[in-house]
Amino acid sequence: LVLVCVWSSVVVCSNMAASSFEKNVNFFRGWVCLFITVCSIGIITMRPKSLFYWMYPDCFERTGWPGLVLALLFFSYLALDSLVAFIWRSQFRRPMKSVHVHHWMVCAGILGYLRPSPPRGFFVYLWGEALTACRVLPPVHRWYARSVVFGFRRLLWSYLLLRDVSNFRRIGQSFGLVVAYLPPMCCVVLLGLDCKWWREHSSSLPHIETEPKVTEKDPSEQDVLVICP
Fold first, then answer.
1. Would you place residue 215 in the very low, low, confident or very high pLDDT band (cuts 50, 70, 90)?
2. For residue 176, is it left (φ>0), alpha (ψ between -120 and 50) or beta?
């Protein structure tokens, strides 16, 4: 039902101008990822010692129905987002190829850990969605918040890469050899994508608009300032 409502909203938005369409899609992405990020943090804080994977095995503990529902919601969001970006490609100003790579690699990881329910350690990956969750903020605040989150994500992917390489054998025994290769590959790809996205982000510092100062000494200069503020 939720997906039907979202799909209907997207179809309505598709009649808007490109900038308005992308803005609305990004705002929707932000709220969904904010919900997913908060829920994933909640799942980890129920067993915070699961973060210390070298001391406690809690990161392999199954999360039951709450974890399964959250993982399916995240998978559905990624699939829908990719579909929207593909069908209405002309409505987006930024290149979407890297977004598709991210989405489908993460979807593969979700499917690998889905049955019977994802382990607790899986949800640490979802903390990285805080980057998209920043889209609910105003432009200037969003830019600074995303700058901080980019730094956090570098630490996060490095931590997860170390964790999943250290537990490679155990992951392979529990989920299969193919699934065991997915997390390290995902971390390496995400580190690479973050470098690309950081370059795009760092070159997009929003300008704080101010009203033009108009003097009454020169009427011709005043007209120029009004036409080209």
1. very low
2. left
What is the per-residue pLDDT for 207? 59
Please give the model's pTM, rounded to 2 decimal places: 0.79
Strand partners, 119: 62
| C-alpha of 129 from chain center | 4
Question: What 8-state DSSP symbol labels residue 227?
Answer: H
Neighbours of 193 (CB within 10 A): 17
Give long-range contacts, CB 8 A cutoff, 24+ apart: 160-166: 160/124, 160/125, 160/187, 161/187, 161/188, 161/191, 163/53, 163/59, 163/121, 166/53, 166/54
**Residue 208: pLDDT over 90:** no
Residue among 28, 15, 70, 14 at smallest CA distance from 46: 70
